[in-house]
User: Fold this.
Amino acid sequence: MTTLLAFLATLALLIVVHELGHYAAARWAGVRVLKFSVGFGRPLFKRTDRHGTEWAVAAIPLGGFVKFLDEREDSVALDQQAYTFNRQPLGKRAIIVAAGPIANFLLAIGLLWILNMHGIPALRPIVAEPPSGTAAALADLRGGDVIVTLNSLSIPDWQTLAEQLLLDNQTDARLEVEDAHGHLRHAVLPREALLTAAQEANPIHALGLSPGTPPMAAVVGAVIADGPAARAGLQVGDRILAVDETLTEDWQGLVQRIRQTRQGDLSIRLERAGQTLTLSVRPERVVDAGQTITRIGIAPRIDPALLAKMRVIHRYGPIDAATQAIQRTWDLSVFSLRMMGRMLIGEASLQNLSGPISIADYAGQSAQAGWVAFVGFLALISVSLGVLNLLPIPMLDGGHLLYYLIEWVTGRSVSERLQEQAQRVGMALLLTLMTFAIYNDLTRLLNS
Assistant:
């Protein structure tokens, strides 16, 4: 229920803001707005204001629209023709069309401004022990390493690291790394590995990179009910001393040792209440982020002070918060466009496309994680919606702006016949993209 409500709230907010952008620009330009609808189909609620605009909420909440007075759609009385959309100057028409995506960008900036003043928690770029054979393992990255720079760019958090690796895959990724003892060294992820990983659904994971923690004691903090460890008798508070007589120095070493197991039972020696015990545990193999791993169903006990070392809080004053919000919105827009471009030329996998099922899932997860995570999710989706609508695809706002660009260059508008043909092409393209996105959603759902 949380997922559904969060998804509907996300849709409603983004649609209303987008359409309000068109509405406000139309009112500014002197265009009469006939209808403002959130959703499609039979209206569940409607009312008409003093300007003659019908406001409606419809039964199918998967979009919305603003309908203007337009002679191309219906006959218009002579005294009303000055208020039609089609009779407006080219500049005003372009502003009205562009105002929807611009409203989405402004919403993202406002949300990020609030978060920047409150403080945005982020994971420090600490690397988990990479699986053997991956590019990260071959580059000699180790669990607990902190990525300091990537190609001389400072890396303050994990998200920055992931985004830069996705964007800067045309050259080797040269990393400056700080180990658990504070010593600096250099590591290189080859360009070939970056390009290969880009063809995977999770490129960062394919490189062997995932968020890690500073070295932690091998003390059990939680035991999954009915998991292998629970069945074997492990308890919260147990300190694991050795696995198959191999001494365990920290939690990272314990995880690595368990994941190296292929079959058979593990002999785990532990300390409990001052006594030493030995238990036999049979690990299970599960799929995690597209990879099969071995686990026994335990989680570490995390010291609050250690947890603080794993996170960084980005917080700014009102002016700097606004500047950062604008910059972040721009960066996300450029990132989205570059990733779309790479998918088109085959340098990035189409598996990165997400549809309504994934968006609903992310909405639910972020809502459960708290308001900060949910507001951040809203800002991200708002930027994505703004970028998508500006693409020069017929049926989208960007398609109409393309018509206006042609009109500005040639001095005459694009014929209605050509627009109709382009609409069909745009519809086919959007349906194809949606098919890919829903297929990816279902694939993730079935493999989860």
User: Anything to note?
Assistant: Residues 31-87 form one domain. The chain has four domains: 1-19+88-119+316-448, 31-87, 135-206, 220-300.
